[in-house]
Design brief:
- The complex is a heterodimer of chains A (about 425) and B (about 475).
- Chain A has helices spanning about 5-10, 85-100, 115-135, 150-160, 170-180, 185-205, 235-250, 275-290, 295-300, 315-320, 335, 345-355, 360-365, 370-375, 395-400, 405-410; strands at about 45, 55, 55-60, 105-110, 140-145, 160-165, 220-225, 250-255, 325-330, 380.
- With about 425 residues, chain A is of the alpha/beta class.
- Chain A is globular.
- Chain B has about 475 residues and is an alpha/beta fold.
- Chain B contains 18 helices and 14 strands.
- Chain B has helices at about 15-25, 60-70, 80-90, 105-125, 150-160, 200-210, 220-225, 240-255, 275-285, 290-300, 310, 335-340, 350-360, 390-410, 420-425, 430-435, 455-460, 465-485; strands at about 5, 35, 130-135, 135-140, 165-170, 175, 180-185, 325-330, 365-370, 380, 385, 415, 440, 445-450.
- In chain B, helix 1 links the parallel strand 1 (about 5) and strand 2.
- The longest helix of chain B is centred in the first third of the chain and has 23 residues, at about 105-125.
- Chain B is elongated and about 110 Å long.
- Classes of the chains: A alpha/beta (about 425), B alpha/beta (about 475).
- At the A-B interface, helix 1, strand 1, strand 2, helix 2 and helix 6 of A face helix 4, helix 5, helix 6, helix 7 and helix 8 of B.
């Protein structure tokens, strides 16, 4: 099998992992040797026709796997073609692509073969070779295997910017049913271990002499949950996410719509990926982290533990809490402005700065590139008072006709 | 009288500032100024050039930062816009930059944003091709920015590719790095850059393979990667094929017969250490108290009727210490750090407790420590988990396990730290402050020494009170130690 075929198989095997972030790590550059730089901001070097960013070379070392997770294209019982990279091949591909400015770095994962430690050792070896032999300063994300020995995890954190362990499913019961070899409590313990090390390294950076501080995953840890493979509702998914953010200080929880795979398991027949639901979960996640919403509030915008698919979760929440509106843009405090549908955190800050000097009018909102049909029903400005807030038809008026809901649906091929 | 400034380059902020200072010092209003870049056609009217001057005016940092970026915009009116904003800032509108809805400010922000986006896309979409020359390997790229960003962004590529020798050619400018020095030259043509590169087929193969045909969203792709960039990105040649094939590939995956799970998938682990240990514990549990404790811990961790909050914890936190320790300390429940480490009394309150034990001269091998409730009960709030006190039902659930733990360790004295522990040990609500320092009747006729929980000491706001209460706590521990030895 030539390198190109291996690359095709092992990239195909890696694409169901949504994470592609290359941001938030320590600043580095190559002016004192080596290759590459990281400057804080992530860079998406290309976009595929699925709308996803390509920032890192995202591949598996091997797609041979002893685990039989029903949702996974690489499960032991799947009939997909198997391949394995050598460490040298991954190192060379990474450097070759990086020198062309095609990637920010490497996201390396692997099927589990032989043992957890053996597999983890191979991942660590790739990262160590890149850093030590080639002075690679770019971004490295390594998948961490929960059962791997503490020494290997320690070394992984020394070379990698980010480590991740995928929780895969939000509940222990689903995980047991669909991924019999995985164990939620082992996964959580491993995440807890990563948190302790990440915080320890940061603490050392603050207190010890900087040069001596040991490095450990400066871009933190992340995880992924598959959406739609089990029966968990959005309340459960967001509940697990809030526990994970609070307990293990995750940088990100990625939500990945369960997507059809070649050779799906009979235990989990393929479905069209629930892309809109995935999108709503990301929006809800944002409200939880940056807009002061609680999980219960976000969920209250929908019905029966599920988010409203036809409206963004902030608008859905606002429609069910009309008594909290209208909000006066010239008087209300920041927390209240953040609750207005269609106002992002940046716009809110601009409104706060501006209104100290001149009263906010409806036309000002247009200048700030705010969607007026979305915002005006919920706000008072110097020249505007909403009239439709109590109207039964408001919800219908706010449902976007052309926006994401339509765009997210898989399309037929006439657009090109 | 009007004034005209001729700037040496299209994005020369220092020259613009010099000219603007001169105009400002001469009191020339914006409508009487004219701005040109050297080489532009001169205006029909002869106008004076601004004299070098210091305007003495102070402007907000926010303006300077924004202006330095916005001046790279391709809009020929950028210099005049910047001067107009400068004029307004120094003529009665010092807070103008904060008025985010002002038309000039909006435009300035929009220009800076466009420049930043252009720079970001240059970092992202520029592709080098590797060429072998007589002088060694070189990397060459052709890129077409919308704005005058070549000089400003050269540094990014130097920092990233300091060890390579490279050139970036654009229609207006070329940038060269020889490994030590940066130099700039005139613009070029696409033909100046080699048409392909040996690694490109691999990169295109990667691009095609990472695409998921079941998630086709070409609108999202185009929003972030507009078509104008495609002609200089080799991988985009794959897009028509990928899009054309996607519906068929997705339909195939959906309609294909699913594979039955293999009845006997290859299992990774031979019977592991844990299983062996468990079997040994069960064998020894009757005779060896250590094995009995381990078996008890396993039994509790594996129960399927645990309270809901227990499932949200990372792990169960069992007691620690020597079997037969005369002192058996009971706390409330594991906290955030205990939950992560899986060990009792390792958080802030635990560290204070350790200090107090030392101060009271209680030897380590005489103390067993555990909690009344053995999972962390919390409410998530952003990046923290807020401790939630266990209720009577929670305490009752764990009580039988605590009693069996006591039975195995067989201490001489139980020490209840705080209300939860005292409730678990005595079976009823005990007012801590009243009972403190006294002995209460406990399970199996064992005496219970009552004192506060160390976290109470951490919560005291007043330093003086804290010192006094800590000393009292140490006294309590000393008294308990003496009692156990009696």
């Amino acid at each position: 099998m030539d390198l190109r075929q291996k690359l095709e198989i092992l990239a195909d095997a890696a694409k169901y992992d949504a994470s592609c972030a290359s941001s938030g790590t320590a600043k580095r550059d190559s002016t004192r040797g080596g290759l590459g730089s990281t400057e804080g901001m992530g860079i998406c070097h290309a976009y595929a026709p699925d709308g996803r960013c390509i920032s890192l070379l995202k591949i598996l070392l091997t797609n041979a796997c002893a685990f039989d997770c029903a949702y996974c294209v690489n499960r032991a019982s799947s009939n997909v073609r198997r391949a394995r990279f050598t460490v040298a091949e991954v190192v060379k591909l990474t450097l070759d692509f990086y020198r062309r400015n095609a990637i920010e770095g490497l996201f390396l994962s692997s099927g589990i073969t032989r043992s957890a430690d053996w597999t983890m050792e191979q991942l660590v070896l790739v990262a160590r070779t890149l850093r030590e032999e080639h002075g690679f300063q770019g971004y490295i994300h390594l998948k961490t295997i929960p059962d791997a020995s503490p020494e290997l995890v320690e070394e992984a954190g020394r070379w990698a910017d980010r480590l991740s362990i995928n929780i895969e499913l939000p509940e222990a019961g689903s995980l047991k049913a669909l991924a019999p070899e995985k164990d939620l409590s082992e996964i959580k313990k491993a995440m807890g271990g990563l948190r302790a090390r990440i915080e320890g390294a940061r603490e050392d950076l603050r207190t010890a002499r900087r040069a001596k501080a040991p490095r450990f995953a400066p871009a933190g840890q992340s995880t992924q949950m598959i959406v739609g493979a089990d029966a968990s509702d959005d309340a459960t998914i967001l509940g697990t996410a809030t526990d994970l953010y609070a307990g293990y200080r995750l940088k990100r929880v990625y939500y990945s719509a369960y997507s059809p795979i070649p050779d799906a398991s009979r235990a989990l027949p393929p479905i069209a990926p629930p892309l809109v639901r995935e999108h709503r979960l990301y929006q809800a996640d944002w409200l939880l982290r940056f807009y002061g919403f609680s999980r219960e509030e976000v969920i209250a915008g929908g019905e029966g533990g599920m988010l409203d698919l036809s409206l963004d979760p902030k608008t859905a929440w606002a429609l069910k809490h009309r008594a909290d509106f209208p909000v006066d843009l010239n008087r209300a405090p920041r927390e209240r402005l953040l609750r207005v549908p269609g106002l992002g955190a940046k716009t809110v800050d601009k409104i706060l700065a501006t209104r100290r000097h001149s009263a906010i009018r409806a036309e000002d909102l247009a200048r700030l590139h705010v969607s007026l049909p979305k915002v005006l029903p919920f706000v008072i400005t110097a020249d505007h008072r909403p009239r439709l807030l109590d109207s039964g038809g408001l919800r219908e008026r706010l449902i976007p006709g052309t926006a994401f809901v339509a765009a997210a649906r898989p399309v037929q091929m006439s657009l090109f | 009288m009007g004034m005209a400034a001729v700037l040496p380059g299209p994005a020369d902020f220092a020259a613009w500032r010099g000219a603007a200072r001169g105009m400002l010092a001469a009191g020339v209003p914006p409508e009487d100024t004219e701005w040109r870049v050297a080489g532009d056609a001169p205006s029909l009217f002869a106008e004076a050039a601004p004299p070098p001057a210091s305007s003495g005016a102070h402007v907000p940092r926010a303006f300077v930062d924004l202006a330095e970026i916005a001046i790279r915009h391709a809009d020929p009116e950028r210099f005049a816009l910047l001067y107009r904003v400068l004029w307004r800032l120094t003529h009665g509108e010092p807070a103008l930059m904060q008025v985010a809805t002002d038309a000039d400010v909006v435009r300035l922000h929009a220009m800076a944003k466009a420049v930043k986006r252009d720079a970001h896309k240059m970092h992202a979409f520029l592709r080098f091709r590797q060429v072998e020359t007589e002088a060694g390997t070189r990397h060459v790229a052709w890129f077409e920015p919308d704005h005058h960003i070549e000089d400003a962004e050269a540094g990014f590529f130097v920092r990233r590719f300091a060890g390579l020798r490279w050139s970036i050619v654009t229609p207006r400018r070329s940038v060269h790095w020889n490994g030590t020095d940066l130099s700039f030259g005139p613009g070029g043509r696409r033909q100046d850059v080699p048409p392909d590169d040996a690694v490109e087929p691999l990169w295109r193969a990667y691009y095609a393979a990472i695409f998921n045909p079941a998630r086709l969203k070409p609108g999202a792709m185009r929003a972030e990667m507009p078509r104008k960039y495609w002609r200089n990105m080799p991988e985009t040649a794959e897009i028509p094929r990928l899009m054309a094939e996607a519906p068929r590939r997705a339909a195939e995956m959906l309609s294909r017969d699913a594979t039955a799970p293999r009845p006997n998938p290859q299992r990774l682990h031979p019977p592991g250490r844990a299983d062996v240990e468990e079997a040994m514990d069960l064998l020894d549990a009757g005779t060896d108290p250590k094995a009995a404790l381990a078996a008890l811990a396993r039994e509790l961790a594996g129960r399927n009727d645990l309270p809901d909050f227990a499932r949200r914890a990372t792990q169960m936190v069992f007691g620690e210490g020597p079997v037969g320790a005369p002192l058996f300390f009971v706390g409330e429940q594991p906290g955030d750090e205990e939950d992560i480490q899986g060990r009792p009394f390792v958080g802030p309150a635990g560290r204070l407790f350790d200090r107090a034990l030392d101060a009271a001269q209680v030897p380590r091998d005489e103390a067993y420590v555990t909690n009344a409730v053995k999972h962390f009960k919390f409410t998530p709030t952003g990046k923290r988990r807020l401790h939630q006190s266990p209720d009577a039902g929670d305490i009752a659930y764990y009580r039988p396990f605590l009693l069996r733990e006591i039975g195995i360790v067989a201490p001489r004295l139980l020490v209840g730290l705080g209300a939860t522990a005292l409730r678990a040990l005595t079976g009823k609500a005990v007012p801590v402050m009243k009972a403190r320092g006294t002995i209460l009747p406990g399970p199996e006729g064992l005496p219970v020494f009552a004192t506060v929980h160390p976290s109470y000491l951490l919560r005291l706001p007043d330093e003086e009170v804290q010192r006094r209460e800590y000393a009292r706590f140490v006294e309590d521990l000393r008294a308990a130690h003496a009692q156990a030895a009696a």
